[in-house]
Amino acid sequence: MPDVYFNPHVASLPKYNAGLGPEAAQAASGLKTIARLASNENPYGCSPSVSKALEAVEPWRYSDPGCHRLRLALSEHLSVSPDKLVIGNGSEEMIAASARAFLRPDATALTVSPCFGLHEIEPLAVGAKVEKVPMTPSFEFDIIGLERALARSPHLLFLPSPWNPVGAALNHKELRRLVSATPDSTMFVLDEAYYEFTSEVIPDGLSLLRESGRPYIVLRTFSKAFGLAGLRVGYAVCSSAPIARMLAAAKTPFNVNASAQAAALAALADPGWMQGSVRQIVAERERVANRLRQSGLRVAPSEGNFLFVETGRSSECVARDLLKAGVIVKPWMETPYDSFIRVSVGTPEENDQFLGALLRHPGASEPAVSAKASSARYDLGLAPHA
Ligand SMILES: *Cc1c(COP(=O)(O)O)cnc(C)c1O
């Protein structure tokens, strides 16, 4: 097909690196037990009340395009009026909708680097430019660098806190500084996909932004702490109803399917299950981080359900070696972070499988694998951004 049909913005997009499935690790390792630590999913599953709710879904009926029941439940949960809430097919859809609604060709979006792939891909897809402010050498947000970039009035800011893949989260003072450095003409999008994992010292960005009186969008999701990644449901909390209407106009009408709406309602009604799993994940996160640090590796402090680890080798090689031991992680391919891997916190067994595979042969190019496994051919499907 001649290129003339291609939208050049779409044709030149970097590929989103979605992480490998278990089949690739089974083929590479010859093992049945695979530790899936590449996508920040909840290793404990989801609330048992979700399966019951799914049984009552009527697949032959269109889903509610306005997600009324879910918006009402969230409205109570967050003390926000329902007309400021937009539910998405995952919060990733709300990232795309934000770019469509608030950016035009040649506009500028600002984010951080290493970045969450979609915070770059979605602005590029609408023809905008993306500026990225790198993390500091101590794995923190470069507040001064961000303030400088914000002074140039980008049209939109995608700010992840906690920061995927790094793990850092903005404290009260830092978030306040960035909020006051952001011109009113900049749409402030705070992506709190990992909000439920944060400690008490990390502010609720929604409350802080609400106090500021400025325009904003806060993104949250049922994919991570609530364990509904496969059903695709996330949401945007907007500072005003007109902003919510703009976002809603930029999505497809029946974007959230009936199973996703029913599951999210059930998950939200069982906060105890979510909190229990979060406690275990946070405890494991600290155990894994400490073990890695004891072995001399640099690990960024994390407020999420993942760790960003400097391996001292090519991240692609490390990921390949781990795959041969049945462990799937995400190698970072964005220069200069290409010796980092991002590993999700799994169950204690999965984490031990990861630690064993990574630390048994620190710096070794030969991982412990059977001859059969090491001769298996597999495609890592790696691309920059994740
Ligand atoms: C996982 C993630 C999301 C997207 O989650 P959905 O499954 O689409 O709700 C959004 N932002 C960040 C930073 C993430 O890590």
From TrEMBL:
Superkingdom of the source species: Bacteria
Gene that encodes it: hisC
Subunit structure: Homodimer.
Reaction equation(s) it catalyzes: L-histidinol phosphate + 2-oxoglutarate = 3-(imidazol-4-yl)-2-oxopropyl phosphate + L-glutamate
Keyword Amino-acid biosynthesis listed: yes
Native species: Solimonas marina
Name listed for the protein in its UniProt record: Histidinol-phosphate aminotransferase
UniProt cross-references to HAMAP family, sorted A to Z: HisC_aminotrans_2
Entry keywords, A to Z: Amino-acid biosynthesis, Aminotransferase, Histidine biosynthesis, Pyridoxal phosphate, Transferase
Assigned EC number: 2.6.1.9
N6-(pyridoxal phosphate)lysine PTM sites in chain numbering: K224
CDD domains tied to this protein: AAT_like (cd00609)
Cofactor: pyridoxal 5'-phosphate
GO MF annotations in UniProt: histidinol-phosphate transaminase activity; pyridoxal phosphate binding
Record-linked Gene3D superfamilies: Aspartate Aminotransferase, domain 1, Type I PLP-dependent aspartate aminotransferase-like (Major domain)
Family: Belongs to the class-II pyridoxal-phosphate-dependent aminotransferase family. Histidinol-phosphate aminotransferase subfamily.
Pfam families: Aminotran_1_2
Pathway entry: Amino-acid biosynthesis; L-histidine biosynthesis; L-histidine from 5-phospho-alpha-D-ribose 1-diphosphate: step 7/9
